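User: Can you predict the 3D structure for this chain?
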Amino acid sequence: MTMASCGEGYTPKMVRQPYLQSAIADSVSVLWRTDVGNGCEVRYRTVGASRWLTAKGVVRVANTGLIANEVTLTGLDHAQVYEYQVLTDGIEPAPSKMYRFRAPLSRADTAFTFFAVGDVGEPVADDGTPDVLGKALALQKDQFHFGLFLGDIIYPDGQSEDYDKNLFPYFTEVFPYVPVFTVLGNHDWHEPQQNYMQEWKLPNNEHYYSFTYGNACFIALDSKNGEMHEYDTQREWLIRELENAREGGTDWLIVFLHHNGKSCTYKEDYEAVVSLYPLFEKYRVDLVLNGHAHTYERLNPMDGGGQLVPGGLDKAGFTSITIGSGGKLRGIGTDPGPFTPDPDNCRYPGLVAKSVHDWAYAKFHINGKKLVGQAITTKEHEVVDTFELVK
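Assistant: Here is the predicted structure, written as structure tokens:
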């Protein structure tokens, strides 16, 4: 049985531009979708080289009827920039284009930049701004080594049929060039095995996983609807990952998930997340990044009991940041409730270090023992928060 039949001279049509996944160690996976196809491959080379390499992949019929093409490139030279072309049935799908990506860093490379943002998939017709976010990230795509999507990727309920309407068309100048790692949000929890997991290629069981990049370990958690997916099993796994990261001598430890723990936004405190705070303190987690609340809020460092650590960023403790304003903002569109929090009168005095109610994403630069974080508005490209962590 063939995936599709092509008449002679027919060029497969590119329905979804390439997107990069699982950029780990010396490999990266390239995925794209076409209208027809029985085979796929990627031609690639380091920029400036004369010889092309070719890697063959697999195709399958996706749950939307399109043809999912997937090729994994291995044996890449760390940190090198590659250019590549994708082919389906030996043909560049129309419209043909040359893309590029940077291979993952080695443990010896300790300077890199990544972005993090959540709640991106609100339809433009509902006053969402994924189009604006895509343009903002594209301006800096040569700076980013990868990105983190902090859940609620597709509204209203994460169905595969909406990915090519409400997400991928707005990131054609980002996804082919910058790998992204995602986590499930509550809006993505609509039969995730049949939807979310058909769209992304992620490590482990895709609900929760980890990867090392340079001198940092990133741990992705599935907070489901706030109660944590498979809480006991996931917690045991998290402990093992945290222990391995610290025993392996990783400098930076960053956790990302969808739901917040303690917060001064309009969202409740999610106790399942707060219950992980003792682990964050014990294993010296540096950053905890989440979405869910459609705003930007950086908290002062906390200890395992959720109490403020005296001395702020200069002392121990983990820094928790909500970055849920990538495409949706409280008070607008399908989230019309007024944004009423007042950090100065929060039930947790002194908890909030910076609060900005605007569409924004976060940019982080690690250079050895120093991390610089910024919040940048997607419309005006204004830096509205800057902080540093030094080991």
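Helices lie at 130-138, 163-166, 196-199, 231-247, 271-274, 277-282. The chain has two domains: 14-102, 111-390.
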